[in-house]
């Protein structure tokens, strides 16, 4: 089966190509993002493989459908970029990879927390400059801290377990509580969690209900000096409100692996260009902000799982078998 892979990086080829070859599939890797101009590149391909920042709105889905695409495999968990109703109208099957490695993202979130609470990112740079002073690097123990986990699906539940292992008091919020998490902490309302947490880690999908769930009014009720970690979706937080909170000191530290306008930044080498996104550039000026470029998923374990699920769905579609994690 022929499949074109958009937003392909060298590591995608490493993990996808051997599995595709052994299954008899023909993959065409292109580093171009999918958009209104590039969707014509998929003409003649029955299947398309996309990543998290490849939009699949009605216009693009129409273009893909006209070119013969009938299956879209997302090599990511999130699907807020997809027009599900349009795909259903056109009869295009769309699959995703919801649980490639919850440990990868959970461990990254905790790693960002550790780096911020002990200023590891700043200490690393100091030592490289032969500056061995400890001034300004005073941290705090995680043990005994109140940690709030927003969203207790596969990733959030692992994150809660890890923080509980550090001896933290874990509070959790989820519209659908996970019984397996009860041993790690207690479920509370979102407002209670925000008011009574030293560290808040977001692990929920981006939906109309969760868009900007962390905004100015919500930040105002949080503990002064709290830490906010977001490894889920950039649109969960109002970035300008975060900047305002950092400027006043109400927010003590921020760790972001995602950014609401990351589509024009992340996964590319822009080191020789001027960043024109003023909000993102402002974030980079804060010493208590740690940003990684949507890296939380990036482990060999996760990429193996993503590749396996992607190729399994190509196999299943070709054999007219039920698809894995199908959205339409």
Descriptive report:
This protein is α/β, with parallel strands linked by helices and 328 residues long. It has 2 domains: 2-100 and 299-318, NAD(P)-binding Rossmann-like Domain (Rossmann fold, 3-Layer(aba) Sandwich); 102-291, Rossmann fold, CATH 3.40.50.720. The protein has helices at residues 10-23, 58-66, 84-90, 102-118, 120-128, 154-165, 190-195, 216-221, 239-248, 278-283, 300-318; strands spanning 2-5, 26-29, 47-50, 71-74, 93-95, 146-150, 169-173, 185-187, 199-202, 226-230, 251-256, 289-291. The strands form 2 sheets. Strands 8-7-6-9-10-11-12 form a 7-stranded parallel beta sheet. Strands 2-1-3-4-5 form a 5-stranded parallel beta sheet, sandwiched between helices. α3 (84-90) links the parallel β4 and β5 (93-95). The longest helix is centred in the last third of the chain and has 19 residues, at 300-318. It is globular, with a radius of gyration of 21 Å. 40% of the residues are buried. The model has no long low-confidence stretch (mean pLDDT 96).
Topology (SSEs and partners):
Blueprint: E1 2-5, H1 10-23, E2 26-29, E3 47-50, H2 58-66, E4 71-74, H3 84-90, E5 93-95, H4 102-118, H5 120-128, E6 146-150, H6 154-165, E7 169-173, E8 185-187, H7 190-195, E9 199-202, H8 216-221, E10 226-230, H9 239-248, E11 251-256, H10 278-283, E12 289-291, H11 300-318
Parallel strand pairs: 1-2, 1-3, 3-4, 4-5, 6-7, 6-9, 7-8, 9-10, 10-11, 11-12
């Amino acid at each position: 089966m022929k499949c074109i892979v958009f937003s392909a990086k060298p590591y995608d080829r490493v993990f996808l190509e051997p599995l595709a070859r052994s299954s008899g599939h023909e993959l065409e890797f292109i580093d171009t993002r999918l958009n209104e101009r590039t969707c014509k590149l998929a003409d003649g391909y029955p299947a398309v493989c996309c990543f998290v920042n490849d939009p699949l709105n009605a216009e693009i889905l129409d273009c893909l459908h006209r070119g013969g695409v009938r299956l879209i495999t997302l090599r990511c968990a999130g699907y807020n970029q997809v027009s599900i109703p349009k795909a259903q109208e056109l009869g295009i099957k769309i699959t995703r990879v919801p649980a490639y490695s919850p440990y990868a993202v959970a461990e990254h979130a905790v790693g960002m927390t550790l780096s911020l609470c002990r200023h590891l990112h700043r200490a690393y740079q100091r030592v490289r400059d032969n500056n061995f002073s400890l001034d300004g690097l005073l941290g705090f123990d995680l043990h005994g801290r109140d940690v709030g986990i927003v969203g207790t699906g596969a990733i959030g539940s692992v994150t809660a377990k890890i923080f509980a292992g550090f001896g933290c008091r874990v509070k959790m919020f989820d519209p659908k509580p996970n019984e397996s998490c009860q041993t790690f902490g207690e479920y509370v309302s979102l407002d209670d969690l925000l008011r009574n947490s030293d560290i808040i880690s977001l692990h929920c999908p981006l939906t109309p209900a969760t868009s900007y769930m962390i905004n100015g009014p919500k930040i105002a009720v949080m503990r002064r000096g709290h830490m906010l970690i977001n490894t889920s979706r950039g649109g969960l937080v109002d970035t300008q409100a975060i900047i305002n909170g950092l400027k006043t000191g109400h927010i003590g530290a921020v760790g972001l692996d995602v950014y609401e306008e990351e589509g024009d930044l992340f996964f590319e080498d822009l080191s020789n260009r001027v960043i024109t996104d003023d909000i993102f550039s402002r974030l980079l000026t804060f010493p208590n902000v740690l940003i990684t470029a949507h890296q939380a998923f990036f482990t060999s374990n996760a990429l193996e799982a993503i590749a396996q699920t992607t190729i399994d769905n190509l196999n299943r579609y070709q054999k007219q078998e039920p698809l894995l994690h199908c959205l339409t």
